[in-house]
Amino acid sequence: MINMKHFSKCMTRGFLLCGMSAMVLGSMPVSAWADGPDYTMSVIDTTKTGSLTLYKLTGNSGVTTPGTGLEGEAVPAGETAIPGVTFSFIKVGELAQLTEANVALNHLTSIPDDLKTLGQNIGVTLTTTTAGTQQVVTTDNFRAFIEAIKAVPATDDSASGEVLLNEWIAANGTEMTPTDDTGKTTVADLPLGLYLVAESDWQEAQPGEAAIVSPVSPFTVMLPMTNVTDIDGYAPGMLWQYDVTAYPKNNTVNLKKEIILNGNDGDGTELALTTDRNIGDEVTMLLTADVPKMADGRSTRLFALDDEMDEGLAFVEVETVTLGTGTWQATANTALTEADYEVTSADAQHFSVTLTEDGLDKVNALDAPAKLYVRYTTVLTKAAGIGPAMTANTASLRFGADRMKDVTVPGNTAEVATYEIDLTKTAALTDADLTQAVFELYRGDDLVSCVQDEAGRYHVADREDWEEGSSLTSNFMPDADGHLYIRGLDAATYTLTEINAPVGHSLLKAPVVIDMTAPDEVNGSLDSALVGFEGENGEAVADTTALADGIVPLTVENAVAIDLPHTGGRGLVMYGTAAGGVLLLALVLMKKRRHV
Questions:
Q1: Nearest-CA neighbor of 223 among 55, 425, 51, 339?
Q2: DSSP letters for 210-247
Q3: Are 435 and 501 in contact (CB under 8 A)?
Q4: Omega into 502 within 30° of 0, i.e. cis?
Q5: pLDDT confidence tier of residue 4, bands split at 50, 70 and 90
Q6: pTM of this prediction?
Q7: Which DSSP string corresponds to 250-282?
Q8: CB of 24 within 8 A of CB of 244?
Protein backbone atom coordinates (compact mmCIF):
# COMPACT_ATOMS: atom_id res chain seq x y z
CA MET A 1 0.00 0.00 0.00
CA ILE A 2 1.41 3.36 -1.05
CA ASN A 3 1.67 6.02 1.63
CA MET A 4 0.18 8.80 -0.47
CA LYS A 5 1.26 11.59 1.87
CA HIS A 6 4.87 10.44 1.87
CA PHE A 7 4.77 9.75 -1.89
CA SER A 8 3.37 13.20 -2.61
CA LYS A 9 6.09 14.88 -0.56
CA CYS A 10 8.85 12.94 -2.34
CA MET A 11 7.36 13.62 -5.74
CA THR A 12 7.12 17.30 -4.93
CA ARG A 13 10.80 17.59 -4.05
CA GLY A 14 12.25 15.25 -6.63
CA PHE A 15 10.13 16.33 -9.56
CA LEU A 16 10.80 20.01 -9.09
CA LEU A 17 14.48 19.40 -8.52
CA CYS A 18 14.80 17.74 -11.92
CA GLY A 19 12.38 20.00 -13.76
CA MET A 20 11.63 23.41 -12.33
CA SER A 21 15.08 24.18 -10.99
CA ALA A 22 16.67 23.44 -14.35
CA MET A 23 14.20 25.76 -16.07
CA VAL A 24 15.22 28.87 -14.18
CA LEU A 25 18.95 28.33 -13.98
CA GLY A 26 20.06 27.65 -17.53
CA SER A 27 22.02 30.91 -17.77
CA MET A 28 23.44 31.10 -14.25
CA PRO A 29 27.04 30.35 -13.23
CA VAL A 30 27.94 28.03 -10.34
CA SER A 31 27.97 29.85 -7.02
CA ALA A 32 29.18 29.80 -3.48
CA TRP A 33 26.28 30.70 -1.22
CA ALA A 34 26.53 34.04 0.58
CA ASP A 35 23.55 35.34 2.63
CA GLY A 36 20.99 32.65 3.32
CA PRO A 37 17.67 32.75 1.44
CA ASP A 38 14.26 32.28 2.93
CA TYR A 39 13.40 28.57 2.79
CA THR A 40 11.21 25.87 4.29
CA MET A 41 11.71 22.13 4.48
CA SER A 42 9.74 19.61 2.45
CA VAL A 43 6.41 21.39 2.13
CA ILE A 44 5.64 24.70 0.43
CA ASP A 45 4.34 27.36 2.77
CA THR A 46 1.53 28.88 0.70
CA THR A 47 1.30 31.86 3.05
CA LYS A 48 4.72 33.07 1.89
CA THR A 49 5.65 35.15 -1.12
CA GLY A 50 8.78 34.96 -3.19
CA SER A 51 11.38 37.37 -4.53
CA LEU A 52 13.34 37.53 -7.74
CA THR A 53 16.78 39.17 -8.01
CA LEU A 54 18.62 39.50 -11.30
CA TYR A 55 22.25 40.43 -11.89
CA LYS A 56 22.83 41.48 -15.48
CA LEU A 57 26.27 40.56 -16.87
CA THR A 58 28.08 40.48 -20.15
CA GLY A 59 28.20 37.00 -21.63
CA ASN A 60 31.03 37.16 -24.14
CA SER A 61 33.03 34.40 -22.50
CA GLY A 62 30.52 31.78 -23.63
CA VAL A 63 30.34 30.30 -20.10
CA THR A 64 26.90 28.77 -19.47
CA THR A 65 27.24 26.79 -16.26
CA PRO A 66 23.89 26.14 -14.52
CA GLY A 67 23.44 28.16 -11.35
CA THR A 68 21.93 27.68 -7.94
CA GLY A 69 19.39 30.47 -7.53
CA LEU A 70 21.46 31.87 -4.69
CA GLU A 71 22.92 35.34 -4.44
CA GLY A 72 26.71 35.53 -4.42
CA GLU A 73 27.35 33.50 -7.55
CA ALA A 74 30.92 33.35 -8.83
CA VAL A 75 31.09 35.58 -11.90
CA PRO A 76 33.28 34.24 -14.73
CA ALA A 77 36.48 36.15 -15.37
CA GLY A 78 36.05 38.94 -17.87
CA GLU A 79 32.32 39.40 -17.30
CA THR A 80 31.11 42.81 -16.16
CA ALA A 81 27.84 44.30 -14.93
CA ILE A 82 25.46 45.97 -17.38
CA PRO A 83 23.40 48.84 -15.93
CA GLY A 84 20.18 50.22 -17.37
CA VAL A 85 18.64 46.92 -18.47
CA THR A 86 14.90 46.42 -17.89
CA PHE A 87 13.32 43.00 -17.37
CA SER A 88 9.65 42.13 -17.54
CA PHE A 89 8.04 39.18 -15.79
CA ILE A 90 4.64 37.51 -16.00
CA LYS A 91 3.11 34.69 -14.00
CA VAL A 92 2.20 31.85 -16.37
CA GLY A 93 1.20 29.01 -14.08
CA GLU A 94 0.07 27.83 -10.68
CA LEU A 95 1.65 24.77 -9.12
CA ALA A 96 -1.01 22.18 -8.34
CA GLN A 97 -0.95 18.58 -7.10
CA LEU A 98 -3.01 15.75 -8.55
CA THR A 99 -3.72 12.49 -6.73
CA GLU A 100 -5.63 9.85 -8.67
CA ALA A 101 -5.46 6.06 -9.00
CA ASN A 102 -2.42 5.82 -6.78
CA VAL A 103 -0.66 8.54 -8.82
CA ALA A 104 0.56 11.74 -7.20
CA LEU A 105 1.80 14.34 -9.59
CA ASN A 106 2.67 18.03 -9.53
CA HIS A 107 1.41 19.96 -12.53
CA LEU A 108 0.66 23.46 -13.76
CA THR A 109 -2.66 25.25 -14.07
CA SER A 110 -3.79 28.71 -15.16
CA ILE A 111 -1.51 28.84 -18.21
CA PRO A 112 -2.57 31.90 -20.27
CA ASP A 113 -4.59 31.00 -23.34
CA ASP A 114 -2.94 33.69 -25.47
CA LEU A 115 0.46 32.16 -24.73
CA LYS A 116 -0.83 28.85 -26.05
CA THR A 117 -2.22 30.70 -29.06
CA LEU A 118 1.14 32.34 -29.70
CA GLY A 119 2.67 28.88 -29.95
CA GLN A 120 -0.10 27.50 -32.13
CA ASN A 121 0.27 30.40 -34.57
CA ILE A 122 3.86 29.37 -35.27
CA GLY A 123 3.22 25.63 -35.19
CA VAL A 124 4.02 24.78 -31.57
CA THR A 125 1.51 22.98 -29.34
CA LEU A 126 1.63 22.65 -25.57
CA THR A 127 1.63 18.91 -24.90
CA THR A 128 0.12 17.17 -21.87
CA THR A 129 0.93 14.17 -19.70
CA THR A 130 -1.51 11.41 -18.75
CA ALA A 131 -2.17 11.26 -15.02
CA GLY A 132 -4.74 8.64 -14.24
CA THR A 133 -7.75 9.64 -16.29
CA GLN A 134 -6.63 13.25 -16.77
CA GLN A 135 -4.35 15.12 -19.08
CA VAL A 136 -2.20 17.64 -17.24
CA VAL A 137 0.67 20.01 -18.09
CA THR A 138 3.82 19.20 -16.19
CA THR A 139 6.80 21.49 -15.92
CA ASP A 140 8.53 19.23 -18.45
CA ASN A 141 5.65 19.81 -20.88
CA PHE A 142 5.83 23.54 -20.35
CA ARG A 143 9.61 23.71 -20.67
CA ALA A 144 9.49 21.78 -23.94
CA PHE A 145 6.76 24.16 -25.15
CA ILE A 146 8.85 27.26 -24.42
CA GLU A 147 12.02 25.80 -25.95
CA ALA A 148 10.11 24.80 -29.08
CA ILE A 149 8.74 28.34 -29.45
CA LYS A 150 12.24 29.81 -29.11
CA ALA A 151 13.57 27.41 -31.72
CA VAL A 152 11.20 28.57 -34.47
CA PRO A 153 13.25 30.57 -36.98
CA ALA A 154 12.23 33.84 -38.52
CA THR A 155 10.52 33.88 -41.91
CA ASP A 156 9.89 36.56 -44.50
CA ASP A 157 6.50 37.15 -42.88
CA SER A 158 7.26 36.68 -39.19
CA ALA A 159 9.91 37.27 -36.57
CA SER A 160 11.47 34.26 -34.87
CA GLY A 161 9.60 32.48 -32.12
CA GLU A 162 12.05 33.79 -29.55
CA VAL A 163 11.46 37.37 -30.59
CA LEU A 164 7.68 36.86 -30.53
CA LEU A 165 7.86 35.30 -27.06
CA ASN A 166 10.05 38.14 -25.81
CA GLU A 167 7.58 40.69 -27.17
CA TRP A 168 4.62 38.86 -25.61
CA ILE A 169 6.24 38.89 -22.16
CA ALA A 170 7.16 42.57 -22.48
CA ALA A 171 3.64 43.50 -23.63
CA ASN A 172 1.76 41.51 -20.99
CA GLY A 173 4.17 41.46 -18.07
CA THR A 174 5.33 43.82 -15.36
CA GLU A 175 8.57 45.77 -15.65
CA MET A 176 11.25 45.55 -13.00
CA THR A 177 13.38 48.54 -12.04
CA PRO A 178 16.30 48.93 -14.49
CA THR A 179 19.53 47.32 -13.33
CA ASP A 180 21.83 49.55 -11.30
CA ASP A 181 25.57 50.04 -11.72
CA THR A 182 26.20 46.59 -10.26
CA GLY A 183 23.77 45.07 -12.76
CA LYS A 184 21.22 44.32 -10.01
CA THR A 185 17.44 44.60 -9.93
CA THR A 186 15.00 43.03 -7.43
CA VAL A 187 11.28 42.54 -7.08
CA ALA A 188 9.78 41.21 -3.82
CA ASP A 189 6.44 39.94 -2.54
CA LEU A 190 5.66 37.92 -5.65
CA PRO A 191 2.82 35.39 -5.47
CA LEU A 192 4.10 31.84 -5.69
CA GLY A 193 3.98 30.20 -9.09
CA LEU A 194 5.77 29.82 -12.42
CA TYR A 195 7.04 32.97 -14.16
CA LEU A 196 8.40 33.86 -17.58
CA VAL A 197 11.09 36.56 -17.61
CA ALA A 198 12.33 38.51 -20.60
CA GLU A 199 14.73 41.35 -21.24
CA SER A 200 12.42 44.08 -22.50
CA ASP A 201 14.62 47.18 -22.76
CA TRP A 202 18.16 48.42 -22.33
CA GLN A 203 20.13 51.62 -22.60
CA GLU A 204 21.07 52.63 -26.11
CA ALA A 205 24.80 52.31 -26.61
CA GLN A 206 26.79 55.47 -27.12
CA PRO A 207 29.25 55.56 -30.02
CA GLY A 208 32.40 53.70 -29.09
CA GLU A 209 30.85 51.95 -26.08
CA ALA A 210 30.04 48.27 -25.75
CA ALA A 211 26.51 47.55 -26.93
CA ILE A 212 24.13 44.67 -26.27
CA VAL A 213 23.76 42.61 -29.42
CA SER A 214 22.15 39.48 -28.03
CA PRO A 215 19.47 39.92 -25.33
CA VAL A 216 19.08 37.03 -22.94
CA SER A 217 16.73 34.33 -24.11
CA PRO A 218 13.38 34.38 -22.20
CA PHE A 219 13.60 32.06 -19.19
CA THR A 220 11.34 30.55 -16.55
CA VAL A 221 11.48 30.97 -12.79
CA MET A 222 9.62 28.88 -10.24
CA LEU A 223 8.83 30.52 -6.91
CA PRO A 224 9.72 28.74 -4.74
CA MET A 225 12.32 26.45 -6.28
CA THR A 226 13.92 23.34 -4.85
CA ASN A 227 17.51 23.85 -3.69
CA VAL A 228 20.20 22.46 -5.99
CA THR A 229 23.12 22.97 -3.63
CA ASP A 230 23.75 22.57 0.11
CA ILE A 231 22.10 25.26 2.21
CA ASP A 232 22.76 25.37 5.97
CA GLY A 233 23.76 21.71 5.86
CA TYR A 234 20.66 20.60 3.97
CA ALA A 235 21.48 18.53 0.92
CA PRO A 236 20.12 19.36 -2.55
CA GLY A 237 16.46 18.54 -2.97
CA MET A 238 15.45 19.04 0.66
CA LEU A 239 14.37 22.68 0.73
CA TRP A 240 12.08 25.18 -0.94
CA GLN A 241 13.86 28.48 -1.76
CA TYR A 242 11.53 31.47 -1.82
CA ASP A 243 14.24 33.97 -2.79
CA VAL A 244 15.66 33.23 -6.20
CA THR A 245 18.62 35.00 -7.83
CA ALA A 246 19.57 34.61 -11.47
CA TYR A 247 22.52 35.89 -13.50
CA PRO A 248 21.23 36.30 -17.06
CA LYS A 249 23.88 37.36 -19.54
CA ASN A 250 24.14 39.44 -22.67
CA ASN A 251 26.51 39.23 -25.54
CA THR A 252 28.00 42.66 -26.10
CA VAL A 253 30.28 44.05 -28.77
CA ASN A 254 32.27 47.21 -29.21
CA LEU A 255 33.47 48.78 -32.44
CA LYS A 256 36.52 51.02 -32.43
CA LYS A 257 37.98 53.08 -35.24
CA GLU A 258 41.58 54.29 -35.07
CA ILE A 259 44.13 55.93 -37.34
CA ILE A 260 47.41 54.14 -37.95
CA LEU A 261 49.75 57.08 -37.63
CA ASN A 262 52.71 55.46 -39.36
CA GLY A 263 50.62 53.21 -41.53
CA ASN A 264 51.94 54.66 -44.75
CA ASP A 265 55.51 53.71 -43.86
CA GLY A 266 54.88 50.10 -42.90
CA ASP A 267 52.63 48.04 -40.66
CA GLY A 268 52.53 50.77 -38.06
CA THR A 269 52.05 50.37 -34.34
CA GLU A 270 51.00 53.82 -33.19
CA LEU A 271 47.25 54.34 -33.15
CA ALA A 272 45.23 57.49 -32.50
CA LEU A 273 41.72 58.84 -32.81
CA THR A 274 42.87 62.06 -34.51
CA THR A 275 45.70 63.23 -36.73
CA ASP A 276 46.53 65.95 -39.24
CA ARG A 277 47.40 65.57 -42.91
CA ASN A 278 47.94 67.49 -46.13
CA ILE A 279 45.11 67.37 -48.62
CA GLY A 280 45.93 64.51 -50.97
CA ASP A 281 47.65 62.43 -48.26
CA GLU A 282 46.57 58.88 -47.56
CA VAL A 283 45.14 58.14 -44.11
CA THR A 284 45.31 54.50 -43.02
CA MET A 285 42.44 53.44 -40.75
CA LEU A 286 41.82 50.42 -38.53
CA LEU A 287 38.41 49.05 -37.50
CA THR A 288 38.40 46.71 -34.49
CA ALA A 289 35.13 44.86 -33.84
CA ASP A 290 34.41 42.47 -30.97
CA VAL A 291 33.43 38.97 -32.02
CA PRO A 292 31.57 37.44 -29.04
CA LYS A 293 31.41 33.77 -28.21
CA MET A 294 27.65 33.44 -27.95
CA ALA A 295 26.76 32.41 -24.40
CA ASP A 296 23.67 30.39 -25.31
CA GLY A 297 25.01 28.51 -28.31
CA ARG A 298 23.57 30.85 -30.92
CA SER A 299 25.33 31.16 -34.25
CA THR A 300 26.25 34.53 -35.74
CA ARG A 301 24.43 34.95 -39.05
CA LEU A 302 25.23 38.61 -39.82
CA PHE A 303 28.46 40.51 -39.29
CA ALA A 304 28.97 43.64 -41.36
CA LEU A 305 30.98 46.83 -40.87
CA ASP A 306 29.71 50.03 -42.49
CA ASP A 307 31.95 53.07 -42.78
CA GLU A 308 30.72 56.59 -43.46
CA MET A 309 33.06 59.48 -44.18
CA ASP A 310 32.65 63.21 -44.59
CA GLU A 311 33.32 64.61 -48.05
CA GLY A 312 36.81 65.48 -46.86
CA LEU A 313 37.77 61.78 -46.94
CA ALA A 314 37.47 59.30 -49.76
CA PHE A 315 37.67 55.50 -49.56
CA VAL A 316 40.55 53.92 -51.47
CA GLU A 317 40.76 50.21 -50.63
CA VAL A 318 40.55 47.52 -47.96
CA GLU A 319 44.05 46.26 -47.32
CA THR A 320 43.58 43.38 -44.87
CA VAL A 321 40.87 41.65 -42.83
CA THR A 322 42.06 39.48 -39.96
CA LEU A 323 40.44 37.52 -37.14
CA GLY A 324 42.06 36.63 -33.86
CA THR A 325 42.56 37.14 -30.14
CA GLY A 326 45.85 39.04 -30.35
CA THR A 327 46.56 42.58 -31.44
CA TRP A 328 45.70 43.49 -35.01
CA GLN A 329 49.26 42.73 -36.13
CA ALA A 330 49.57 39.38 -34.33
CA THR A 331 50.99 36.70 -36.61
CA ALA A 332 48.68 34.16 -34.97
CA ASN A 333 45.63 35.96 -36.31
CA THR A 334 43.80 34.40 -39.24
CA ALA A 335 44.02 36.44 -42.43
CA LEU A 336 40.63 36.22 -44.10
CA THR A 337 40.54 35.72 -47.83
CA GLU A 338 38.32 37.28 -50.46
CA ALA A 339 36.03 34.28 -50.10
CA ASP A 340 35.40 35.22 -46.46
CA TYR A 341 34.16 38.78 -46.94
CA GLU A 342 32.69 41.11 -49.51
CA VAL A 343 33.59 44.78 -49.95
CA THR A 344 30.94 47.08 -51.41
CA SER A 345 31.15 50.81 -51.96
CA ALA A 346 28.17 52.94 -52.96
CA ASP A 347 30.31 56.05 -53.42
CA ALA A 348 33.64 57.51 -52.35
CA GLN A 349 32.35 58.25 -48.83
CA HIS A 350 30.80 54.85 -48.01
CA PHE A 351 31.92 51.26 -47.99
CA SER A 352 30.95 48.02 -46.24
CA VAL A 353 32.78 44.84 -45.31
CA THR A 354 30.34 41.95 -44.90
CA LEU A 355 31.31 38.44 -43.85
CA THR A 356 30.18 35.76 -46.27
CA GLU A 357 29.01 32.30 -45.24
CA ASP A 358 32.64 31.16 -45.28
CA GLY A 359 33.61 34.03 -43.01
CA LEU A 360 30.70 33.40 -40.65
CA ASP A 361 31.72 29.74 -40.43
CA LYS A 362 35.13 30.84 -39.19
CA VAL A 363 33.53 33.17 -36.62
CA ASN A 364 31.17 30.47 -35.36
CA ALA A 365 34.01 27.95 -35.11
CA LEU A 366 35.84 30.10 -32.55
CA ASP A 367 36.08 28.64 -29.07
CA ALA A 368 36.72 32.01 -27.38
CA PRO A 369 35.86 35.68 -27.91
CA ALA A 370 37.93 37.32 -30.65
CA LYS A 371 38.23 40.50 -32.68
CA LEU A 372 37.82 41.28 -36.35
CA TYR A 373 40.34 43.79 -37.72
CA VAL A 374 39.82 45.71 -40.96
CA ARG A 375 42.72 47.84 -42.19
CA TYR A 376 41.86 50.19 -45.03
CA THR A 377 43.11 53.29 -46.82
CA THR A 378 41.42 56.64 -47.28
CA VAL A 379 42.67 59.90 -48.79
CA LEU A 380 42.09 63.49 -47.66
CA THR A 381 40.22 65.48 -50.30
CA LYS A 382 39.93 69.18 -51.17
CA ALA A 383 36.59 69.21 -49.29
CA ALA A 384 38.41 68.70 -45.98
CA GLY A 385 37.43 71.05 -43.19
CA ILE A 386 39.98 73.56 -41.89
CA GLY A 387 41.01 73.59 -38.26
CA PRO A 388 38.36 72.47 -35.74
CA ALA A 389 36.00 71.64 -38.62
CA MET A 390 37.85 68.34 -38.75
CA THR A 391 36.94 65.73 -41.32
CA ALA A 392 35.14 62.88 -39.57
CA ASN A 393 34.99 59.17 -40.22
CA THR A 394 32.38 57.04 -38.39
CA ALA A 395 31.63 53.34 -38.60
CA SER A 396 28.92 50.99 -37.34
CA LEU A 397 28.49 47.25 -36.92
CA ARG A 398 25.44 45.34 -38.08
CA PHE A 399 25.13 42.15 -36.07
CA GLY A 400 22.63 39.33 -36.06
CA ALA A 401 22.43 35.90 -34.46
CA ASP A 402 19.97 33.02 -34.50
CA ARG A 403 16.47 33.77 -33.17
CA MET A 404 17.06 37.49 -32.62
CA LYS A 405 16.56 40.77 -34.41
CA ASP A 406 19.44 42.43 -36.20
CA VAL A 407 21.04 45.26 -34.25
CA THR A 408 23.27 48.15 -35.27
CA VAL A 409 26.14 49.09 -32.96
CA PRO A 410 27.52 52.63 -33.37
CA GLY A 411 31.27 53.06 -33.43
CA ASN A 412 33.35 56.05 -32.41
CA THR A 413 34.53 58.78 -34.76
CA ALA A 414 38.07 59.28 -36.04
CA GLU A 415 38.96 62.77 -37.28
CA VAL A 416 41.59 64.32 -39.55
CA ALA A 417 42.62 67.98 -39.35
CA THR A 418 44.28 70.21 -41.90
CA TYR A 419 45.39 73.84 -41.65
CA GLU A 420 45.65 77.07 -43.68
CA ILE A 421 48.09 79.90 -44.32
CA ASP A 422 46.47 83.33 -44.70
CA LEU A 423 48.98 85.73 -46.24
CA THR A 424 48.41 89.45 -46.64
CA LYS A 425 50.63 91.13 -49.25
CA THR A 426 51.40 94.83 -48.87
CA ALA A 427 53.68 97.21 -50.78
CA ALA A 428 55.24 100.59 -50.08
CA LEU A 429 53.71 102.26 -53.12
CA THR A 430 49.99 102.75 -52.82
CA ASP A 431 49.39 102.17 -56.49
CA ALA A 432 51.29 98.88 -56.59
CA ASP A 433 49.68 95.98 -58.47
CA LEU A 434 49.78 93.32 -55.74
CA THR A 435 48.72 90.59 -58.16
CA GLN A 436 52.19 90.85 -59.72
CA ALA A 437 53.69 89.18 -56.63
CA VAL A 438 54.38 85.47 -57.05
CA PHE A 439 55.28 82.97 -54.29
CA GLU A 440 56.39 79.36 -54.04
CA LEU A 441 55.83 77.17 -50.99
CA TYR A 442 58.07 74.31 -49.93
CA ARG A 443 57.45 71.62 -47.34
CA GLY A 444 61.02 70.57 -46.62
CA ASP A 445 62.51 70.07 -50.08
CA ASP A 446 59.15 69.37 -51.71
CA LEU A 447 57.45 72.05 -53.77
CA VAL A 448 53.77 72.28 -52.87
CA SER A 449 51.37 72.05 -55.83
CA CYS A 450 47.93 73.60 -55.54
CA VAL A 451 44.76 74.27 -57.47
CA GLN A 452 43.05 77.66 -57.42
CA ASP A 453 39.29 77.57 -56.92
CA GLU A 454 36.69 79.92 -58.35
CA ALA A 455 37.00 82.22 -55.35
CA GLY A 456 40.72 82.62 -55.98
CA ARG A 457 41.80 80.54 -53.00
CA TYR A 458 44.39 77.79 -53.31
CA HIS A 459 44.14 74.28 -51.92
CA VAL A 460 46.77 71.58 -51.98
CA ALA A 461 46.08 69.30 -54.93
CA ASP A 462 44.22 66.11 -54.01
CA ARG A 463 44.13 62.76 -55.78
CA GLU A 464 41.21 63.77 -57.95
CA ASP A 465 43.04 66.92 -59.09
CA TRP A 466 46.04 64.87 -60.17
CA GLU A 467 43.92 62.24 -61.90
CA GLU A 468 41.75 64.75 -63.74
CA GLY A 469 44.71 66.84 -64.85
CA SER A 470 43.45 69.97 -63.14
CA SER A 471 45.36 73.22 -63.57
CA LEU A 472 48.04 72.52 -61.02
CA THR A 473 50.37 75.32 -60.06
CA SER A 474 53.19 75.94 -57.65
CA ASN A 475 53.08 79.70 -58.24
CA PHE A 476 50.73 81.50 -55.88
CA MET A 477 49.56 85.08 -56.49
CA PRO A 478 47.59 87.33 -54.15
CA ASP A 479 44.35 88.91 -55.25
CA ALA A 480 43.99 92.65 -55.91
CA ASP A 481 43.62 93.27 -52.18
CA GLY A 482 46.80 91.34 -51.43
CA HIS A 483 45.11 88.30 -49.90
CA LEU A 484 46.56 84.86 -50.52
CA TYR A 485 45.03 81.73 -48.97
CA ILE A 486 46.70 78.30 -49.10
CA ARG A 487 44.66 75.59 -47.38
CA GLY A 488 45.12 71.87 -46.79
CA LEU A 489 48.45 71.77 -44.94
CA ASP A 490 49.49 69.60 -42.02
CA ALA A 491 51.50 70.87 -39.07
CA ALA A 492 55.07 71.10 -40.37
CA THR A 493 57.77 73.59 -41.34
CA TYR A 494 57.22 75.46 -44.61
CA THR A 495 59.37 77.86 -46.62
CA LEU A 496 57.65 80.66 -48.53
CA THR A 497 59.78 82.19 -51.30
CA GLU A 498 58.86 85.30 -53.28
CA ILE A 499 59.95 84.81 -56.89
CA ASN A 500 58.37 87.98 -58.33
CA ALA A 501 57.68 91.34 -56.73
CA PRO A 502 55.31 94.10 -57.83
CA VAL A 503 56.89 96.62 -60.21
CA GLY A 504 58.93 99.23 -58.36
CA HIS A 505 59.49 96.96 -55.34
CA SER A 506 62.28 94.73 -54.16
CA LEU A 507 61.99 90.99 -53.66
CA LEU A 508 62.14 89.71 -50.10
CA LYS A 509 65.76 89.42 -49.05
CA ALA A 510 65.25 85.79 -47.94
CA PRO A 511 62.53 83.12 -47.83
CA VAL A 512 60.01 83.25 -44.99
CA VAL A 513 59.98 80.19 -42.72
CA ILE A 514 56.62 79.16 -41.19
CA ASP A 515 56.82 76.54 -38.44
CA MET A 516 53.40 75.16 -37.35
CA THR A 517 52.96 73.12 -34.16
CA ALA A 518 49.81 71.19 -33.29
CA PRO A 519 48.89 69.70 -29.88
CA ASP A 520 49.80 66.07 -29.20
CA GLU A 521 46.12 65.20 -29.25
CA VAL A 522 45.14 66.80 -32.52
CA ASN A 523 41.94 68.85 -32.25
CA GLY A 524 42.17 71.17 -35.25
CA SER A 525 43.83 74.06 -33.44
CA LEU A 526 47.49 75.04 -33.60
CA ASP A 527 49.51 75.36 -30.43
CA SER A 528 51.82 77.88 -32.02
CA ALA A 529 53.35 79.13 -35.24
CA LEU A 530 56.74 80.80 -35.68
CA VAL A 531 57.25 83.13 -38.65
CA GLY A 532 60.60 84.65 -39.64
CA PHE A 533 63.20 84.99 -42.38
CA GLU A 534 65.32 81.97 -43.12
CA GLY A 535 68.43 81.93 -40.95
CA GLU A 536 66.83 84.07 -38.26
CA ASN A 537 64.79 83.27 -35.18
CA GLY A 538 61.10 83.23 -35.96
CA GLU A 539 58.59 85.35 -34.09
CA ALA A 540 55.54 83.70 -32.54
CA VAL A 541 52.20 84.50 -34.13
CA ALA A 542 50.24 86.46 -31.55
CA ASP A 543 46.78 85.97 -33.05
CA THR A 544 45.61 83.11 -30.83
CA THR A 545 42.09 83.27 -32.29
CA ALA A 546 43.42 82.47 -35.74
CA LEU A 547 45.65 79.71 -34.38
CA ALA A 548 42.67 78.20 -32.59
CA ASP A 549 40.95 78.07 -35.98
CA GLY A 550 43.92 76.25 -37.50
CA ILE A 551 45.04 79.33 -39.44
CA VAL A 552 48.48 80.97 -39.59
CA PRO A 553 48.17 84.68 -40.47
CA LEU A 554 51.19 86.62 -41.74
CA THR A 555 51.91 89.84 -43.63
CA VAL A 556 54.60 90.24 -46.29
CA GLU A 557 55.56 93.81 -47.27
CA ASN A 558 57.79 94.86 -50.16
CA ALA A 559 60.03 97.92 -49.97
CA VAL A 560 60.47 100.38 -52.85
CA ALA A 561 63.36 99.54 -55.16
CA ILE A 562 66.40 101.98 -55.38
CA ASP A 563 65.55 104.83 -57.85
CA LEU A 564 68.48 104.56 -60.32
CA PRO A 565 68.53 106.88 -63.40
CA HIS A 566 67.17 105.29 -66.57
CA THR A 567 69.30 105.01 -69.83
CA GLY A 568 68.41 107.91 -72.25
CA GLY A 569 66.81 109.79 -69.49
CA ARG A 570 67.27 113.13 -67.91
CA GLY A 571 70.66 112.50 -66.34
CA LEU A 572 72.44 111.45 -69.53
CA VAL A 573 71.01 114.38 -71.49
CA MET A 574 72.44 116.75 -68.92
CA TYR A 575 75.85 115.12 -69.09
CA GLY A 576 75.74 115.10 -72.90
CA THR A 577 74.80 118.75 -73.16
CA ALA A 578 77.61 119.78 -70.85
CA ALA A 579 80.15 117.72 -72.73
CA GLY A 580 78.97 119.14 -76.06
CA GLY A 581 79.37 122.68 -74.77
CA VAL A 582 82.93 122.04 -73.64
CA LEU A 583 83.78 120.53 -77.02
CA LEU A 584 82.29 123.50 -78.92
CA LEU A 585 84.28 125.99 -76.78
CA ALA A 586 87.49 124.08 -77.53
CA LEU A 587 86.89 124.22 -81.27
CA VAL A 588 86.33 128.01 -81.18
CA LEU A 589 89.54 128.60 -79.26
CA MET A 590 91.55 126.44 -81.65
CA LYS A 591 90.22 128.39 -84.70
CA LYS A 592 91.22 131.76 -83.18
CA ARG A 593 94.75 130.57 -82.55
CA ARG A 594 95.19 129.65 -86.22
CA HIS A 595 94.35 133.21 -87.31
CA VAL A 596 96.82 134.76 -84.96
A1: 51
A2: -EEEEPPPPEEEEESEE-SS-BTTBPTTSEEESEEEE-
A3: no
A4: no
A5: very low
A6: 0.75
A7: EEEE-EEEEEETTGGGSS---EESEEE--TT-E
A8: yes
